[in-house]
Amino acid sequence: MFEKLDYLRDKSNKLPMRPGVYQMKDKSGKIIYIGKAKLLKNRVTSYFHAVEAHNAKTYKLVSQIYDFDFIVTDTELDALVLEASLIKLHSPKYNILLKDDKGFSYFQITGGDYPRIRHSFRSDDPASTYIGPYMSAFTVKQAIEECNRIFMLPTCGKEFPRDFGKERPCLNYHIKRCMGVCRGCIPKEEYSDIIKQAVDFLRNGSKESVERLTEEMNEAAEALEFEKAVKLRDRIAAIERAAKVQSIRSGRDISCDVFALSNNSGLTAAAVVKYRKGQLIDKENYFIGDEYDSTMIRTEFLMRYYENGREIPKLILLDGDTEDNDLLSEYFRGTAGHKVELIVPKRGENLVLTTLAKSNADEYLALRVGRTSREITALQDLQKLLGLKKIPVLIESYDISNMGEQTRVAGMITYRNGRPYKAGYRRFNIKDVVGIDDYACMQEVLRRRFTHYLDGDEHFRECPDLILLDGGKGHVAAVKEVFDEMGIDVPLFGLVKDDKHRTRAVATDGGEIQVNANKNLFRMLTEIQDEVHRYSINYQRKKHKMTQYELDLTKVRGIGEKKALALLKEFKTKQGIKNATVEELMDTAKISRETAEELQLFVREAF
User: Fold this and answer.
1) Quick one: average pLDDT of 190-204?
2) 602: domain range?
3) Is residue 375 within 8 Å of 519, Cβ to Cβ?
């Protein structure tokens, strides 16, 4: 690993200070990454200096680079165009490629006497009828949901006519979302007519469906079939309401694409939400993989997303900047043939749209990494609030608990990806501090923890992304002294409680940052502070109880503190000592039979 680093540094230092494209190659000569640069020398040399400081993806990339080539261009825009064509040609391993494996979507009308209308990615059931294919699964699913609601079609798992009358109708029937086929009161012919109307609605849209249903309603009225005419009238009204009221609309007649990223567990996902004339028409999710610089991800993602002939709207909203918004605007203008704006909204309705896209990205990534969107959002908010370089995947929290000078302990808990990680919990006995001094105790604990880390102790081998102390700025300042002394560079903050013992602020060595305005963050930090307090005080109580046991055992002639401690370490509890044989007591405490028998008698009488 990195065996060619000196060669690569020397070669990159000789590059020109001009725009261009670079191609990173592995040991076999295969291109594994293609990038563009405003200044080739500055960009390429950055890969081979301070390698340990790179994010995970860049570190992995650099470890596999054995050589690189470059192409000089006249302008940065030329470099951007060339980069796009070369990535399309070579499909390098470390570039974002956005392969779509979802396939096409279909409306599926199942077979049988009582068919259903469903979404499907396949069209291979000979008993079913299909409408499609369509590119957008989101649009197909939304249309089916609307169709089932308008025509009151069943969406349950029952099979008809097999399940007629077996159970009472479900809630959908009672709230008029289903016609109640399960009651067995709807003839096959009537149901078939409703399905035909629903399929007509999907094929031809609301306007033609309303016209056709109106004709049927008038014919039924003329034939004095008033019950049928009323049902058709209600169906027409439902279609017209659906046409007038869009459940997901922008407040104005806007056409744009909205992009947002989500990061968690060192991974990244993206969401694209598309609006046309104010209506949300599509949503797409992409799993990008390893997390790295967000501005680079946005740039690469946008380039890949629009390279296959997708419509480029005049407005693109982003949740953050690309490497060069103006340059991308110019590139897309040349591709689309019209002006394209890239905007990172700070307020107003555009910010609402990017927030919605961000929520979709969070939800999608949460499914991929097995976390809730609340946990992901809280970690992202914590990163922003504290100004951290990256999302804190591994968080350690510490609390001191004491009951007099004889029982002083500390608890260390670990949170990984926003959840308790019990394998990372540790307990400390305070050994060196004289008297009751929380600051000194916290210093001792953190000094011991990072001495273990620097010595390569396998129980402390991971370095946290963030440390939270149960205490205020005084605790932070005290531990910072230790970190400065040991050369430890880990973000360090305190957790401050209000008069109701709830976390109200995060303490720095210079002040406090309020957190109670952010519900998700407030909940997570309160949970961390409560958990570390619970863990440390439980250990303190256990330790205090053990100390009392020790004192009780020393009442027996011939049993001192060391022998009492040895007995408790071996047998754990009073009951354990009570159940021990004389021989076991003799062997454990290295005492005579006479003392062991006296001890056994004392334990059985006293406890």
Assistant:
1) 83
2) 554-606
3) no
